[in-house]
Amino acid sequence: MKLFALFGNPIEHSKSHIIHKLFAKQIGIEQKYIKIKVSTNSFSTSIINFFKNGGLGANITVPFKREAYQICDLLTNRAKFSGVVNTMKILNDHKILGDNTDGIGLLQDLQNLKYITSKSNILLLGAGGAAQGIIYPLIKFGCKITIVNRTYQNAKNIIQHFKKNKNINCLKIENLSKYPYNKTYYDIIINATSSSMKGDIINIPISVINSNIFCYDLFYNNNNTPFLKWCISQGVKNISDGIGMLIEQAAYSFYLWHDIMPDTKKVLMNIKKIN
Fold first, then answer.
1. Of the candidates 113, 72, 76, 110, which has an alpha carbon nearest to the alpha carbon of residue 255?
2. Does the model's pTM come out above 0.85?
């Protein structure tokens, strides 16, 4: 049976194995998809052993997306431009191909939700691998992105990676509440920090919030995440967690492995019923 896996830490909350099981059933493919929790210093060894022992493809989640990028022998354009990898595939010549389906999955979900246009001004919270992985498709679509992060240098590093593209900039988080930055109108706020995973709320000023804004958390939960609860308390009506993105990015991973695109809408309905 074809073997696939999710590598990450933590992974207990992940629904990826359920999603890929539904995809496989829908298409009529026999496969096994497992979750592998690895320590921070053993990812490279674990993923290489996985492929040596018959694994055909893997999804990579926090905190290993940048490390995965370094391991790959070949990269898709999406991965190359993103600088991080969330999907890997072993090729016939035993080389490892790396892809990034996070950004295209997020963009697809935002379009499904009707949250985004090519002129959207996005405030992106976070500067880790999760944040970096979603940027390329969004700026390619035409959006403008401002990154804020507790460690300003990490945000600057991402700006440098994208060669100071005119559609992307960064701010110190404390400057969000200062003139003239507090006069900027954002259409979407995306939380790409690990704050919701830890039960925390990132400290951003309420001046960036308005009733028409769309708030999106890459993390997902059976209930609203701490970030989304805070948004609701500030009067935000349009909110979403990342379950739709998870399904959409998983579909692009599935396509890379099997060359068949599954129906994500049916799977989203099933996952919501499970919740």
1. 76
2. yes
